[in-house]
């Protein structure tokens, strides 16, 4: 049991580093230390692969939400898997998916599961309610463009 606890503790530390230091702290140079060379993110549509893919993804998110922060609400490890429940927040001050900046402060939740091998993340699967955020930002952006809405008519 001690060996599994040690592995699980190590794996949790790697995932916490990803959130704390890389996502929240902006230290994207650490991606090479926490992601395996063949890292792949599974999800709806093609996800990023490798450290360079994650760097591009994080840069896009930071452009849209410069103050973006993830807060780990729960973290569970078993064997080579770690699952985290995240509360994310940010202010939409840059372009995102064709939506011009709205200035809206938004929040969304995520559940992420990652597989690790030899102390590095090899795979990631995730679920997020971010589609609701996108819907809201589209509504706000449209109302900001509509002169009647701006005048309260």
Summarize the structure in words.
The protein is built from five helices and five strands; from the N terminus they run H-H-E-H-E-E-E-E-H-H. With 153 residues, it is of the alpha+beta class.
Please give a quick description of this structure.
With 153 residues, the chain is α+β, with helices and mostly antiparallel strands.
Blueprint (SSEs and pairs):
Layout: H1 2-24, H2 31-34, E1 35-42, H3 50-64, E2 69-78, E3 81-91, E4 105-117, E5 120-128, H4 130-145, H5 147-150
Parallel strand pairs: 1-5
Antiparallel strand pairs: 2-3, 3-4, 4-5
Helix content: 40-55%
Strand-and-helix sequence, N→C?
HHEHEEEEHH
**Number of DSSP strands?**
5
Q: Provide the residue-averaged pLDDT.
A: 90
Q: How many alpha or pi helices?
A: 5
Shape: elongated
What can be said about the biggest beta sheet?
Answer: 5 strands, mixed
Distance between the termini: 67 Å
If strands are numbered along the chain, what order do they take across the biggest sheet? Answer: 1-5-4-3-2
Rg (CA only) = 18 Å
Class derived from helix and strand content: alpha+beta
Strand content: 25-35%
Poorly predicted segments: none
Key words describing this protein structure:
alpha+beta; 153 residues; five-stranded mixed beta sheet; 41% helix; 5 helices; single chain
């Amino acid at each position: 049991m001690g060996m599994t606890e040690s592995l699980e503790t190590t794996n949790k530390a790697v995932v916490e580093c990803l959130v704390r230091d890389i996502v929240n702290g902006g230290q994207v140079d650490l991606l090479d230390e926490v992601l395996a060379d063949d890292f792949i993110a599974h999800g709806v549509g093609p996800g990023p692969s490798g450290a360079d893919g994650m760097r591009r993804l994080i840069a896009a998110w930071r452009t849209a939400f410069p103050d973006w922060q993830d807060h780990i609400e729960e973290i569970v490890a078993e064997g080579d898997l770690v699952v985290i429940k995240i509360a994310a927040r940010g202010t939409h001050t840059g372009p995102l998916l064709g939506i011009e900046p709205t200035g809206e402060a938004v929040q969304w939740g995520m559940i992420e599961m990652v597989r690790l091998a030899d102390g590095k993340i090899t795979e990631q699967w995730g679920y997020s309610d971010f589609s609701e955020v996108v819907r809201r930002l589209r509504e706000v952006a449209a109302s900001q463009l509509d002169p009647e809405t701006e005048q309260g008519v």
